[in-house]
């Protein structure tokens, strides 16, 4: 009879793939934010091309095993839904029988930056956010990264319950199409990263994807698929990368790991934060 760990691995998704949306109207004209609601910002053709290319790569990844399936979770924004559609229909051309479902998930939406956004005010907010700290800084009439973390945590707690109740099989691949900051906070919650560690992370580029793959001990790791140089480029410290390797190889029990605290760095520049205003 299989033990609990074997059962957990057998009923856990093979992969969780996090995808940022493609380039949008904001990349062509940032002033669009002054008169178009953030959630209605659409992809441009370059963004659609990016999504199709990402779809092809994702299909290559998930189709390595026989009997593979995909389940999509998508933010309700126009640009994320359009990215997902390009991935499914024109990029990976996923067959209907392979797609278990598509679920719009409001908790995966973009950080709320207020309503219509004045460009000069946005520049002031960026400067203030650098001084205050990007995790706790609350955008006027909007959200802080901490607020987004809370709702992403709520989503993940539900996902973990689904995994524990065997709602997924090992042939399943979960594909989450969302926003740069939301993806970083998803990873922060999943891997128990600290606020200081979050502050050092770089935002995913448009249609960049990050693959969490199930390891031999039933834990997920970025190091199972991605090269270590990629993890460094994304802002993971040596200690964080070591933890990813441990998870990938199953070298020691999770509970034996100590909390890894990154040093505080107050030297962030104004430019380093630009990508966190993620409408682009």
TrEMBL record:
Cleaved signal peptide residues: none
Sites where the protein binds substrate: 20-27, 79
Residues annotated as catalytic: 21, 110
SUPFAM superfamilies referenced in this protein's UniProt entry, alphabetically: Phosphoglycerate mutase-like
Gene3D superfamilies: Phosphoglycerate mutase-like
Pfam families membership: His_Phos_1
Coiled-coil blocks: none
Name assigned to this protein: Phosphoglycerate mutase-like protein AT74H
Organism taxonomic ancestry: Eukaryota, Viridiplantae, Streptophyta, Embryophyta, Tracheophyta
